[in-house]
What we know:
The chain has helices spanning 10-13, 25-32, 41-50, 69-78, 91-100, 128-139, 152-160, 171-176, 182-196, 212-216, 228-237, 239-255; strands at 19-23, 55-59, 83-87, 104-107, 143-148, 165-169, 200-204, 221-226. By secondary structure, the protein is an alpha/beta fold. Helix 5 (91-100) links the parallel strand 3 and strand 4 (104-107). Helix 3 packs across helix 12 (239-255) and helix 11 packs across helix 12. The radius of gyration is 17 Å and the shape is globular. The protein starts with 9 loop residues before the first helix and ends with a helix. 44% of the residues are buried. It binds pyridoxine-5'-phosphate. Pyridoxine-5'-phosphate (PXP) is lined by residues 23, 25, 59, 86, 106, 108, 116-117, 147, 167, 204-207, 225-229.
Amino acid sequence: MAQANGVPGPAQRLPGALRLYINIDHVATIREARKTDEPDPALAARAAETGGADGITFHLREDRRHIQDRDVVGLAATATTPLNFELATSPDIVDLACRIRPHQATLVPERRTEVTTEGGLALDRNDSALSSAIARLKDAGIRTSLFLSPDTRSLDRAAELTVPAIELHTGRYAHTWRDNDAALEQLREAARYARSLGLAVHAGHGLTYLNTAPVARIAEIEELNIGHSVVSRGVFVGIERATTEMVDLVRAARGKA
Ligand code: PXP
């Protein structure tokens, strides 16, 4: 099926496989350090696509610290793979998403003082901003995912909100994987539980070349979103090669699942 943004759907690209979306925010972070016009995140997206990314993820934050509105418009015009637009519930950003109609939108929590998205959404029963954002994105034909901590309460609430997908926050795993397997087991259980509720399962945050394989082996996970580590490696080898290395790693891990 054609997507909202007119590019081929993931099912046409990768039947049954784990999709790898590359988050290009931190290419814009480098540019914003100088408020200039390089490096261009749209060119990074092109390189990631050439390197084998199944899709491109970006986060337009309320404080516009990295990706800018013009980047979103540029990515919508030039990306050849599905776009995953991460956003909080600010009405102006939801408006922009509905206008450019990416394949997917992932709703995330935002705090101005955080360095990065520190936790999952707190799914409050009376969160009218969240319900309204979900309804508006759905009306625009955009697949909607919620970024959540890997706990059953959040997953139950997401199922009640009737979204098709959730993304499990892998931050706790990323901080503790060297010491013990508890956070990995929590991800495994959450992925299984989310699937049992009929939710498509995505995962991301803090995944690197060293810690991604065990997450990629979780059979219920169908999409990974990885940014900082790939852009960091891209500084040395280029975004295209850095993406291919992550694609190869994920495919090899999934092959051994
Ligand atoms: N998924 C979500 C919802 C995120 O907010 C982020 C960070 O923007 C990522 C994945 C990617 O995290 P990282 O840059 O640590 O790979």
